[in-house]
Design a protein that fits this description.
The complex is a heterodimer of chains A (about 110) and B (about 400). Helix content of chain A is about 15%, strand content about 20%. Chain A contains 3 helices and 5 strands. In chain A, strand 1 and strand 2 form a beta hairpin. Chain B has 11 helices and 26 strands. In chain B, strand 20 and strand 21 form a beta hairpin. With about 400 residues, chain B is an alpha/beta fold. The chains are: A alpha+beta (about 110), B alpha/beta (about 400). At the A-B interface, helix 3 of A face helix 1, helix 8, strand 22, helix 9 and helix 11 of B.
Amino acid sequence: MPKITFIEHNGTPHTVEIGVGKSVMEAAVHNNIRGIDADCGGECACATCHVYIEPEWLAKVGLPAAGSQEASMLSFAAVTQPDSRLSCQIVVTAELDGLVVRMPEGQH
Amino acid sequence: MSETQTRVVIAGAGHAGGSAAAMLRQLGFEGSITLIGEEPIPPYERPPLSKAWLKGEASAESLALRPAEFYATANIDIRLSTSVTGIDRAAKTVSLGTGETVPYDFLILALGARARRLDIPGIGLRGVLELRTAADADQLKAALGPGKRLAVVGGGYIGLEAAASARGLGAEATIIERETRVLARVACQQLSDFFEAYHRGQGVTIEVSAGVAALEGTDGQVTGVRLTDGRLIPCDAALIGVGAVSNDEIARAAGLACDGGIVVDLSARTDDPSIFAIGDCTKRPLPLYDRTMRLESVPNALEQAKQAAAAIYGRPQPAPEVPWFWSDQYDIRLQIAGIPFDATQIVVRGDIAAGKFALFHLAEDGLVRAVEAVNASQEFLGGRRIIQRGKRLTPERIRDMAVTMQELAS
C-alpha cells in the first residue's frame, strides 16, 4: 500500500499506509493523526483537512482547478499557501507512494 | 492517581463519543477508555444516511468514522450492542443493560437524540420509518426505488434530503409539512421558498399547512397518510422526520441538571465535575450569541468532544467555534454559518434565480449573526470568519458583488 507522511506543525512526522483510491484525509483520520480535523467527513464542505504539499510532490499532486469547490474553500482555510490542498480531495494512487505533506498550525 | 490509571467511560458510540475517544488518544491520554454503544456497529458518519448512503453511493466501510481495527490499535475498549442504563454518581459507576457495573473517573455522556414520535393512529404500521441510524437508513433504502411512493412527514432537513434522494432513485416523493413552509424552524422565508421551488421542479409534491391525522394501512403495512383535512396521500413508505429529542433520561435520573438536554458549560462539563456531556444530547452555551441551546450537528459534536478531551487531559480549551451546518440536496449545497438570533434584516448577496447566493442575517447595528449560503462556499467561509470576529457590515457592501468575500471578511 502507498505510504504517506504527515508532518505535524511542531515537526513530528507520522508515516502511514493507505489503500489506493482512498483520500489523503482518510489516511490521516484512519490513523488518528492529530492536526487533520475533517469535520465534514470528506464532503469538501468545511476546509478542516488542509495540508501543504512538499515541493517535490507538488507536480504529481497538482493544485485544485481554478473555480473548483476546493479552490473556493481553500481561499478561506486557515493560513493558506500556494501549495495548500484539502486532503479529502487528493485521491491516493500508486504514483503518490511516499507523499509528504505538512500540516498548518490549526484547522479552525 | 497517575494519569495512566485514569478511567474514562464514554456512554454512546456515535460521532461524538467515537471522536472523544480518538481525541483523547490524539492528545496522548494513556488511561483506559471504554466506549459503550447501543448500535451493533462502531461509530459512523450519520450525515450520508439521508444522502449518499440512501442513494447507494457509499459503502458501509466508507461510512465508518474509523476502520474497525482502529479501536484495538488505539487501546479503546469498545462495547457494542450495549446500553448504559444508569449512573451511580456517589460510587462513580455506570450500569449496563448486560447487568455489569463499570467504574469511571471521568464519564462522558454522548447519548445522542432520538426521533420525535408522533402520537397518531397507525404509527406502528410496517413501512412507517424514521431516520437516525444506519439500520433505519437500510429500511428506508429497501422501500425506495422506481415507481415507489414515499411520503415524508416533516419538511426539515432530513425530510428534504430523503425526498431528494428518493427522487434520485426514481421514487415519487410527497413532503407533508404542518407549518406554512418547509424548513420553518431552521431557515428564513427566502430559503424555504428557494428549496420548495427547487424540490417542486424536481417532481416532489409539497403540502404545506397540512396536519397529519393518521397513518392508514392494509394488513399491517402503511398505504397512506391521512391529512386532517380528510385527504389521503397514498404511499408505500412514510418517513417521519419531525425533529429529535435529547436522550437525557439517565442524566435526569442521576440528578444532573437538564433543560431539554443535559446542561453543560464551555468545557462540556455537567454540574458534576466528573461527568461531561457532548453532542446532540446537550444544552450548551453559545458565547457568540449569549444564549444556551441544543444543537444537532456534526461540527457541534466534534467541538464538544474536543472540549471534553481537553478538560480531561488538562489541556487549554480550544477557541469557541461558530456553529455551522450543511445539507446536500440534488446539486445544491447549503452551508449555514451561525444562527440568526437577534437578526432584524436579511440581505441577499448573489442571484437567487441562478441558484448561487447567500443570505446575510444582520442585527440592528449591522452585526452579522448568520449566513445561509447556497452553492456559495466563499460566502459561507467568509461569513463564518465575519461572525467569529464580530464584524459589522452594511447591506450595500454585502450586496456589491464587486467587493470580494476576502475584502468583506478582512
